[in-house]
Predict the structure of TonB-dependent receptor.
Amino acid sequence: MKTTNFPLLAIALMTAAPAFAQEQDSAGVSQLNTVVVTATKFAKKQSETGKVLTVITREQIERNVGRTVTDVLNEQAGIVINGAGSNPGKNKELYFRGATSQYTPILLDGIPVADATGLTGGAIDLRLLPIDAVERIEILRGTQSTLYGADAIAGIINIITKKGGNKPVGGFGNLSWGSNRSLKGTAGLQGKHENVDYNIAFTHFETDGISEAAPFDTVANPKFDRDGYKQNSFMANVGIQATEQLRFTPYILFSDYKSAYDGGSFQDNLTNNNKSNMVHTGIRSLYDLGKGKLYANFGYQKVTRHDESAWGTTDLDGRAYFGDLYGHYDINSWLQALVGVEYRKTELMDTTLTGTRTFGIGSQYNTSPYASLFIKNLRGFSFEAGGRYTLHSQFGNHFTYTLNPSYLVADKVKVFASIASGFKAPTLTSLYSRWGNPLLKPEKATSYEAGAQTSLLGDKLDLRVTGFKRDIKDVISYINYKYVNYNKQNDKGVEVEVTARPVKGLEIKAFYTYVDGAVTTQASVPGKDTSYNNLARRPAHTGSLNVGYRFSKFYVGTNIRHTGDRDDIYYAPGSFSGVPHPLKAYTIWDMYAEFRFNNAGRVFVNANNITNNRKYWEIYGYSVQGFTMQAGIAFQL
């Protein structure tokens, strides 16, 4: 590691340290005492679990009005959203601890949102998820296959949506205007009457955007056309308290977008366009047992895509079914158990009537019983031991496990470790698309993690250091327009996170992440293997400094994010063979400010890439946005 990659962390610590000598008006909230649900699938303090979890609070979400889910995730330790600074309609690639998006399931209130049509291993298209319906986000790091299924190898992102209000009828919404003729607005209703609560919201976003592709020669091609983007989303949930113990919550999310896109790196195009939509619906139910709870969840999802390009017209229909029945029970004051069974099915259909038929038709399903035993703060010691047995329709039966001890010292320092395994079957796309390979083998992963977390100085300083290692056998990669199994993928890294609250109203956050990875493939000579770094578009070093201060009715915050050197794979026009291309490091500076009239209304302004940095690549050959701004109003009635 180069010492020049640590400046943001150093600045954060130097900024925070002198301030602790000042008088404190109020204590901060310790991260160790934060109650979360994603770590164990039921409510538990972070101090009672060895899992590594980050919470993006409601207040942080509210300070991202006019932005997107990808903007918020891109400011978190260990996460890189490739395309976050590109044209709004450009696809957003999530990398979590160096792993691609197919290894990180996205959940909505604990139920997976998947995409059987996707080329990225079945991962959901992040553009389909509206941030304005989000209450909070919990990010769980490391392999979580025991509780969340085979794909949860890098981690879990659980998006928790807004629920009903505290009066019969209430309204909320926002409206913002911004650069590139961008307009975004949300209107919603929420309320509670007797045993029923509800939340309904509609969001519209449109922008002229920028050119997706960058001109190769700004003299010969001084300007490409703008590639616009338009999105609508509707979300509703209704909570029904049928009895004192029994609750049902039916829900629905509909989201669609239209986007124009270019022909590739440095290649403009005036006719390429895509239309995509998603319906995600189902029901969550809960029965209170007194010393535990019983959950029954069902989800159905349909994603359709219509694409027109130089390759022809393609229409895809992907469907996913999810059922999960589980319960947890407090055996005594320090011992808890969780038992469940899960069912998943995906289907992919090509409904193209004209042009080249790209995808075949296929389906696969699996049933997975699972169980975990938890020791809860037994004289400071906590422990989770669990296993899942996956019965897959195409790839046989596989057992995965989790062992996760932790120890809390003096209620202030938590040391933790974890070893967990994962199993991931090839997706329908990787098996049956034009580039598919029906001979693919499933991937098998083993992950290791260890670290320490502490809250000091009256809970005004939180610090966490985590080291991790992830080994995947038979890793599936998309190489030169073909899905293939590599021998193994070995990734490792370190995360350092600091949160300081030195005085009332002031919060300082900083993180530094190091990630390294190498793939090992069989060489032509028996017994000789070849290993090389293959984390394309994933930097070894990332860091961020975020400072926010609230005084009276004003709030001002700033975020500086540094992305280190990395390599991309460049496909020249007409070439089917990619070549590595180095990308230089870059730093982006954003700011946010708001003024609250009262508890019901505020005006805000978001300024992004303040230095108007355009001299960097997220993806080689694709444009990035320079300075942009959004301003608007938000209200709660």
In short: Residues 7-19 form the longest helix (13 residues).
